[in-house]
């Protein structure tokens, strides 16, 4: 178990001082110009044809200020990329673009396909980054937990929790939930992970204390009984499972 000596709270001021060492160039002026052009096009299209309920939601979303928190910003980017990819599906294109008969239609069709490919790649990269970052954070927290069967229990409980979260998302999608609904659920789950990690990080001392009442690991108990009293293994397994249930620290977090 890693030592906590010398650790400091990760505050906004601490992060600001850290990232001040790595300045980044300002955004190109083209970003604000293109954003303004797109806003003007949206207004023009809305005047010519009343937007549907779903399109109105997207317009309202585009007019909202971007999330301040990095994590929330990434999830919002994921949501918007999924919305864009949904609109770029060839099945939603006009017939003249799906079956181009002119060079102009062929060119526009090619542009849309390239645009879709770029968003597909960007979405895949963002999901991969989030997944690896989440695993890295959890692994870092686990270095401060006891490296025995208690840590194994917590990892198993986390894996079970993640499967349950994925099943919840799959059920929502299967029932016809929108992309917006799906990402509202995903963000709720992400906030739950944050709370669980905070609880886990503050439980180190409790985990140390619980170890004082377990002089031998479960594996040692099995070694003592195996071979001498094989007939008791089934009953012992039941008792061990009950022991896990009663003192499983992961139940408090996942």
UniProtKB/TrEMBL annotation:
Alphabetized InterPro entries for the sequence: Alfin_N
Origin superkingdom: Eukaryota
Signal sequence residues: none
Pfam families xref list: Alfin
Bilayer-crossing regions: none
Span of domain Alfin N-terminal: 217-250
GO BP, sorted A to Z: regulation of DNA-templated transcription
GO MF, one example: histone binding
Protein name: Alfin N-terminal domain-containing protein
